Amino acid sequence: MSEELLINISPMESRVAVLDNGVLGEIYIERHNKLGLVGNIYLGTVVRVLPGMQAAFVDIGQSRTAFLHVNDMQREPRPVAEKKNKAQDSINNERTIIDAATDELAITPPVVSAQSTEVVPVAKTLIQHRLHESQRILVQVTKDQLGSKGARLTTNISLPSRYLVYLPSSEHIGISQRIDGDEERTRLKTELSSLMQTVNLKGGLIARTAAERVPVDKLEEDIYYLLQLWRTICARRQEMKPNQSSELIYQELSLPLRSIRDLVHADTEKVIIDNAQIYEQVRYFAKEFVPFVYDRIVHYNAEQSLFDVHRVEDDLRDALKRRVDLKSGGYLIIDQTEAMTTIDVNTGSFVGARSLEDTVYKTNLEATHAIARQLRLRNLGGIIILDFIDMLEQQHKDDILESLQAQLTQDYAKTKITQVSELGLVEMTRKRTRESLGQQLCEPCSTCQGRGFVKTAETVCFEIFREIMRCARTYNSPKKFTVVAHAAVIDLLLTSESDTVADLEYLLGRVITFDVENLYTQEQYDIVLD
Ligand SMILES: [Zn+2]
């Protein structure tokens, strides 16, 4: 399968589209106003130590000083100044740098934890014995600053890659609990520990859920990336000048760089970027960390928008609709609620009885492809119920299930068909990763309050009649009523409902007049009394 990555940059957002054989498969969107500091690593300076709270305020160059609690510093990095010479001498020596970075941890043994029987002097666990004012310290942000509260920090650095998380201050190799099967867990543990030895990377690793069944050469690429990254961080922390109080050492990657880290692989033929500055950034990043893709990165600066040229804009618009048309004439209806997603398969037009089973079979078969694509594109997660069109032949039923299964194996997210109910409903789950496309881009419709339907103009007319009668009873002799409403409602009042209006005027002895309000939705109206 050939893959292309399209990266579209605008002042307000970055969007990354993954094309499989020219067709939009996945879309990632990052709105720039929602970016935070979480994941960033700073070399900060301790401003105050608060023994009473067992915490410290650390200057990381933000408007508020950040907060570090003793529980978030299980292990104590040695102050940078003491290490300076050793580390500087060895910037180009991978082995020594990694050693330097991890043997800092040996200065203070870890605090007693559940797995450790090591006894640590109590004094070492108190913050006032571990930190002092004006001390420099390497910290990572775990929570953004909010209002008057500063950001929350940890000294337990973690660096994510596509399949792994590197923990410089740990010694364990952990496997995501979502990875099933003892055999696979053991394989990952064995392979990761031998890879770490090969490249001489010290510290701990976590295999993320995405690592399941990933071949060893891919894991090796990841370890290599983490090694390069950690080397860069170790080198950069030495660069801070004595008069500086804080420095951003590592920034959680922006979407364009993350997509190079997480989405690019051997089958990626091209990465096309429509912004010169980001193009340069991505090239620089790729050269350093993902060298095999470097020559496949292209800058696009033609007049027509990149997403229009590749039909991404159209596909994106369609990916928000309930209905997905199939080539065979059938269609899917996709409904997402908080609890689950249901996908209903329908045949298009009436088909003769003789070819019915055949048409249904073909439609269902096509639907399995469309469903798998839509799950990825819309990033639907959680429980998913598929309602295929009823089929008579058992062989057909088996084929459909088999085809669905085959399509789902292409999905990067973990999927599982849990059961086929007596009514023929296929129940499946898909691992929730981020918000679905709909949740990210849409909100409940304010016209229908999320019901998906609006009252008909006739229903609204009848509401208006009841409201006029209520007003006539409640208020003392208004001279006239004016109905202000949507054009469709007023049209109806002046045509098919005009008899009722006349009856009402006679009954109440009042005149009723009408005004169209273009800003009103079909359900909105006002009754004005004169
Ligand atoms: Zn609506």
From TrEMBL:
Main location: cytoplasm
MF term (GO), any: tRNA binding
One Gene Ontology cellular component: cytoplasm
Family matches, as SUPFAM superfamilies: Nucleic acid-binding proteins (SSF50249)
Gene3D superfamilies linked to this entry: Nucleic acid-binding proteins, Ribonuclease E, catalytic domain
UniProt keyword annotations, A-Z: Cytoplasm, Endonuclease, Hydrolase, Magnesium, Metal-binding, Nuclease, RNA-binding, rRNA processing, rRNA-binding, tRNA processing, tRNA-binding
GO biological process annotation, one example: tRNA processing
Keyword check for RNA-binding: yes
Cofactor field: Mg(2+)
Subcellular location per the Swiss-Prot or TrEMBL entry: Cytoplasm
Record InterPro entries: NA-bd_OB-fold, RNA-bd_AU-1/RNase_E/G, RNase_E/G, RNase_E_G_thioredoxin-like, S1_domain
Every S1 motif domain range: 37-156
Family: Belongs to the RNase E/G family. RNase G subfamily.
NCBIfam families in the record: RNaseEG
Name under which the protein is recorded: Ribonuclease G
Native organism taxonomy: Bacteria, Pseudomonadati, Pseudomonadota, Gammaproteobacteria, Moraxellales
